[in-house]
Design goal:
313 residues; Jelly Rolls; 4-stranded antiparallel beta sheet; 9 helices; elongated
Length: 313
């Protein structure tokens, strides 16, 4: 599904403030705006759009949920690794490091396995160690069951983290949709206000002028990204020739465009070192009209990073 595109370039906070100013002026000028079909009912509708937009969760809130879910998943993953090691060591010593029984566990580079791989590896260790239990002195069924419990908990936390990512993307699209509706209503109302006061009262006419300079400003997105986390940034009006820059602090960063909001690096990604600034043209990092339009960031770890992305107007 294609992402919802922003039809306004001012920030969400500026849109709220602009809406408040226009609504206040229109309420004052109810008599002058009546010939344009602006009634108490229509003003209530516009105020409702403003409230609905204002009540949508911010990116900071949703990012907090994603960071917490990712941290919980990563903590459980480390518990699974720690529970696998003593069981796998017994199998290695008993049957040999080159044996099929040991190599079949799939624990090579265990520390580098992501949560999904680790879930499958943990399940394999549970099955194999249960099968070999009579041949493994000191290993108990309780120890195997404890690992199985942790693997199940990891599976739940993987799903929770994925849901947090999905919920964030759904909420972003919902916020943009509500912002577009509010922006159109405010622009239309402002046009009526300017028409009502044109060549009548310059001061009141100016009350309905939306700052065009702000509308053409670059889009700036800032936030935090946990180790192993991806994020789909909410930006608008990107084309293949759009210039953008990104600066990570605390860890390196990968930036790219993708088709879906949950896509990990796909071959178009470009790395940016900690403390450096990467400057790109959107087409060079994968943007394709109607195909790959979502701007993505990926933190390969191991640290939490702070990012700043600027998309030129």
């Amino acid at each position: 599904m294609k992402p919802v595109k922003r039809k306004y370039k001012i920030s969400d906070g500026t849109l709220i403030q602009t809406s408040d100013d226009i609504i206040s002026s229109a309420t004052r000028d109810a008599v002058e705006l009546a010939p344009y079909g602006i009634t108490a009912v229509s003003m209530t509708m516009i105020a409702g759009l403003r409230t609905a937009f204002n009540d949508t969760p911010t990116d900071n809130e949703l990012m907090g949920d994603m960071i917490d879910a990712t941290a919980a998943r990563n903590t459980k993953a480390e518990e699974v690794r720690n529970a696998i090691h003593p069981i796998a060591t017994r199998i290695k010593v008993k049957f040999g490091e080159e044996s099929g029984k040991y190599r079949g566990l799939g624990i090579e580079l265990l520390s580098q396995q992501d949560a999904g791989q680790l879930y499958r590896t943990g399940g394999a260790v549970v099955r194999r160690s249960t099968l070999y239990l009579p041949d493994l002195p000191g290993l108990t069924l309780a120890e195997i069951n404890a690992l199985q419990t942790k693997v199940g908990e990891l599976d739940t936390l993987i799903n929770t983290q994925i849901d947090a990512v999905k919920n964030r993307d759904i909420a972003v699209d919902d916020r943009i949709k509500k912002g577009n509706e509010l922006y159109k209503a405010i622009v239309d109302l402002a046009e009526f206000g300017k028409s009502a006061w044109l060549n009548v009262n310059e001061s009141k006419y100016n009350d309905y002028v939306i700052n065009e300079v702000q509308k053409k400003a670059a889009q700036v997105v800032e936030g935090n990204l946990a180790s192993g986390q991806i994020i789909n940034l909410s930006v608008a009006d990107v084309a293949a020739i759009t210039e953008l820059s990104a600066e990570p602090m605390g860890n390196s960063l990968q930036i790219y465009f993708s088709t879906n909001p949950t896509d990990y690096p796909n071959g178009f990604q470009q790395p940016i070192g900690d403390g450096n600034t990467g400057d790109f043209v959107a087409g060079a990092i994968g943007f394709a009209e109607g195909v790959r339009e979502r701007l993505m960031l990926y933190n390969p770890g191991p640290n939490l990073l702070t990012y700043k992305v600027v998309v030129e107007a």
